[in-house]
C-alpha cells in the first residue's frame, strides 16, 4: 500500500452555480460524545489481543491461516457483546501466483542480475513469457518530476516494436501504461518508481494480461535510464504464472438504528501479511473501528439517523479482495443506498503523520477523480482537527486500500492514514516530529510490526477523529450517493453547512 502525501491547506473558494450535491453536517446533537467515550485503553486492549492471536498462531494473522480465523472469532465475539448481530460472509477469488521464480537480468551494457523482492517485483496479472530485447524509455519526465509517462497512446509514437518499454510510475494507473505499451508492440513493460520513492510496491494490472510486466525500484529505473543515454540497454525478463482459487471472509455488522436507505460503511482490513502480526497494518484500524462500534449504541436512536455498517475486510493484502467482493455482491438498489465509506488503514505509524485522504483533489496527485461528496468527508476531518489545532497533511486516493472499490463504484469515501513505507519529508518532520528521510513505518509488511511498532499518541488522536466522523455522519442529513439536487440557492450559514461543487469545496 503505497501512498503519497502532499501538504495542503483549506482554501476558501467562491460560490459556484453548477448543480451540486448538498451534504449538510450539523453540529453534534446533545448527548454522548464518541470521541471522548472511546479511549486509548479501549484501543490498546484490542491491539494486545491481536498481538496475542498472532503469537499463538505462527506469528501472523494472514488470509487462510489460523491467525486470521482467530481474529474473525475475536471481532465477532466483541461485536455480539456490544449488541450487534454480526454476519461472517465468506468469499472466494482466484489469485495470480508465480509458477516458477522470475528473472530480470541486464544483458548489456555489462551483465547484472536483479534480485526479486529487492530490486523488482512481477506485477500482478502480468503475462507469462521469456523476453530478451532492447529497452526504450517512454516519455521520460523532467528530473525530479512525476509526469504522466505512458498515460497517452501518443507517448509511444515511434516506439520500436519488439522492444521493452521503460515507463515511470505516476498520474494514471499501471493498467493504462501496460495496455498502451502492448498496443505499441512492446514485448514487455518495466515500470519504475517515482522520485523520492525508491522501494517496491505490489501493483496490479487488475485482470489477466498477455504482456510480461515488472515493477522496479527508482534506483534500477535510474540505472537503466542512464545506460539508455549512451546506448540501448538489453534486458532479459522471464515471468511464468498461474491462477489459484483462495477463500476468505468479511465481517459485517449494522447498528440497530438508522435509515436503511442511508448507510455509512465504516471499514478496516482485518488480515495481516504472512510473517507479521500486523499490529499497525492494520490492527490499529481494526482496533479503532471496533472500539467505536462497541460504544456507538450509547448515542441512541435520535443521534443514529443513518444506518452505520461496520465492516472488517478479509484479504486486503491480496488485492482488496474482501471489499471488492462486498461491493461487487451488492445489487444496484442496495449499492445506491450507501451514502459514503470511511476507511481506516494504518493509524499509528511510529514515524507517521496525521493524514487525511484528498477527497477534494486539491493536491492533483489522485490517480482518479474522487466521487462527489469525498471532499465533504475530507472537510469534516479538517474542521475537527482545526478546532483541536492539530496539523494534517493530505494523502492521495491511490486505490491501495479498501476505499478503492467504493470510489470505483462512485461512492464517496474518505478516512485517515498515518503512512506506510514511504519516507517522511522535512516539512512533515517539522509538523509532527520524527525523522525526516526515514519511512513512516519502518516495520511495514515485516515481522517487526508488533505491539512495539505503534506511536500511541498519534494513534490516540487518529482514533478521536474516527469516533468523531462516525458520530457526525451517523447523525447527519446525507444524500444517497450519486443523488444530485438542483442549483444551490444558499450554502447555508450554520456550522458545518457546505456544498460540493465539482472537485472543490465551497464554504
Question: How does this model look, in words?
Answer:
- The protein has 507 residues and is α/β, with parallel strands linked by helices.
- The chain has helices at residues 34-37, 40-56, 66-81, 174-183, 218-228, 279-295, 321-329, 332-335, 374-387, 404-408, 426-432, 456-474, and strands at 5-6, 21-24, 87-98, 103-108, 112-113, 120-122, 129-137, 164-168, 188-192, 213-216, 234-239, 241-254, 259-269, 306-313, 338-344, 355-357, 393-395, 413-417, 497-501, 504-506.
- Helix 6 packs across helix 12 (456-474) and helix 9 (374-387) crosses helix 12 (456-474).
- The longest helix has 19 residues, at 456-474.
- The protein is globular.
- The two termini are 33 Å apart.
- 49% of the residues are buried.
Considering the chains and any ligands shown, give keywords for the structure:
single chain, 507 residues, alpha/beta, nine-stranded mixed β-sheet, eight-stranded mixed β-sheet, 20 strands, disordered N terminus, disordered C terminus
SSE arrangement:
Blueprint: E1 5-6, E2 21-24, H1 34-37, H2 40-56, H3 66-81, E3 87-98, E4 103-108, E5 112-113, E6 120-122, E7 129-137, E8 164-168, H4 174-183, E9 188-192, E10 213-216, H5 218-228, E11 234-239, E12 241-254, E13 259-269, H6 279-295, E14 306-313, H7 321-329, H8 332-335, E15 338-344, E16 355-357, H9 374-387, E17 393-395, H10 404-408, E18 413-417, H11 426-432, H12 456-474, E19 497-501, E20 504-506
Parallel strand pairs: 7-8, 8-9, 9-10, 13-14, 13-15, 15-18, 16-17
Antiparallel strand pairs: 1-17, 2-19, 3-12, 4-5, 4-11, 6-10, 7-11, 12-14, 16-18, 19-20
